[in-house]
Amino acid sequence: MEPSDAGDGASAEDIAAALDAHDTGPSPTDTVAREDSSDAGADAAVGDTAVLDAGAIDAAPDAMIPAPGRPIETLVQSASVWRYLDDGMVPGSRWMERMVDDSAWREGGAPLGYGNGDERTVVRAGPDPMRRAITTYFRREFLVRDAGAIRQVQLRLRRDDGAVVFLNGSEVFRSNMPAGMISSGTLASSTVGGDDESLFVFASLAAGGFVEGRNVLAVELHQAAATSSDLSFDLELSVRRAVVDTSGDPTALAVGDIAVCGSRFDEATSLVADGIAGPALLLGDTVYNNGTTAEFRDCFNPSWGRHRARARPAVGNHEYGSPGAGPYFDYFGASAGDRMRGYYSYEIGSWHAVVLNSNCSEVGGCGAGSPQERWLREDLRMHPTRCTLAYWHHPRFSSGQHGSSTSYGAFWTALQEANADVILVGHEHDYERFAPLNAMGEVDPMRGIRQLIVGTGGAGLRTFSTLVRGGVARDITSHGVLKMTLREGLMEYEFVPVAGDRFVDLGHLECH
To answer: In the chain, which residues fall in CATH 3.60.21.10?
Structure first.
């Protein structure tokens, strides 16, 4: 956050005197990578350390208790509800422990903070706005079942400026904080400003520290200066359990922006796809540059041609480099839908899948009242399943070089009104996952839809441009494929990178 001239802030010494410093010096650390558009090969952000004696985080008590045996699970969703202490008082030295009574603390949904404009919950800066508290405290209770089966823990943290994370009283992660002793008056290592204020940092943690039943995650958020003008906090955590038999649950893969003659990455993503059963949801721009017959023959077919029979494609803009996207419809045949429309639907287990054509000028528009939007509403009415996913090529929301587009707002509105759950898109040559959003881009945990951009199929990756609020995970370092397990009432997702790349993103999304 950026310092302001709003008056004299409380000094670190003023607040630190109220609490004996606690030792949060981490033991051995894991590598932490930032999910932003900076150097693609950059390692850990300065000051980010993850304790290998890390713990597990689970859903809040008022959420569904996780079922034992689920292999991938998002245990704390972004935009969750947290209890927080923001009155400038310093809690007791054992505030982060499991059995502490936090019933008198305030409660609100993330992002929590002030001064950034995207807060769901605005916290106070302390009792005197001219003397802002250095540290704000957050707690979240959760339940764990089958704790011994957890093998991998992935933490994502939005912190403006610095943070220390505890599980059941033990530190598991710190970000943008100095080493050694931490007190309530300890300043963050550096100021976080601009687009970085909405970025998540992530870390892979070891899978220890669980207890069966009630657990507590606690976070203390530190300012870099007593005159800081803003503060922001959110957190997401997912786990992978030991391998279980999921043969009864259908799987599928999704990826877009795929085949380029001369690229090795389309071959590499096709190898990843070899290990994922089920339909291949191709998110457009299946071949570059103009979707010609020769390009499908010489560029797509040698790498991804073996997945043609199971492909369920969405048409991209590059396919329309040939009149009417004719070679695309010729190549995929009936699997691509009516060539005059390019939109259709089908079932994957208990899930309903809707494929739309985001090349609006080719099909009579995408707006409210257009033939495609009317068809979408009727299709959703005829398929009132609990779980629905939709996919097309161009994103509604994006931090990539093309940016967001309002052209698909009517799609989003119709899908949200029908309680759809997931939207998959490509077009941007990156990976980006969002919190549940409404059609205007506002975080809506109850009715919002989660959009995932998976433009990582083989075309060259690109840097991000203007970061969009609501983005939870972003990457431009790895080609790969999104694997989905479509269970009754939920989707488990995992971004699987190609050999040699290292970005991972995994979790689960529950249906409305």
So the answer is: 251-510
Q: Is the full-model pTM beyond 0.85?
A: no
Q: How far is CA 304 from the centre of its chain?
A: 27
The H or E element containing residue 445 is none
Topology of domain 12-241, CATH:
Jelly Rolls (2.60.120)
Q: Where in the chain is the domain with CATH 2.60.120.260?
A: 12-241
- Token pair of 126 as six digits: 């302390």
| Per-residue tokens: 170 | 């033990």
For residue range 111-133, what is the model confidence (pLDDT) as tens digits?
999 998 889 999 997 667 667 88
Q: Are strands 280-282 and 251-255 parallel, antiparallel or unpaired?
A: parallel
251-510 fold: Purple Acid Phosphatase; chain A, domain 2 (3.60.21)
The closest alpha carbon to 425, from 314, 311, 283, 296, belongs to 283
Q: Which residue has the tokens 């899908």?
A: 415
Q: Structure tokens of 111?
A: 């992002």
The verdict on whether omega for the bond into residue 289 sits within 30 degrees of 0, i.e. cis, is: yes
DSSP letter at 410? H
d(CA 316, CA 328): 10
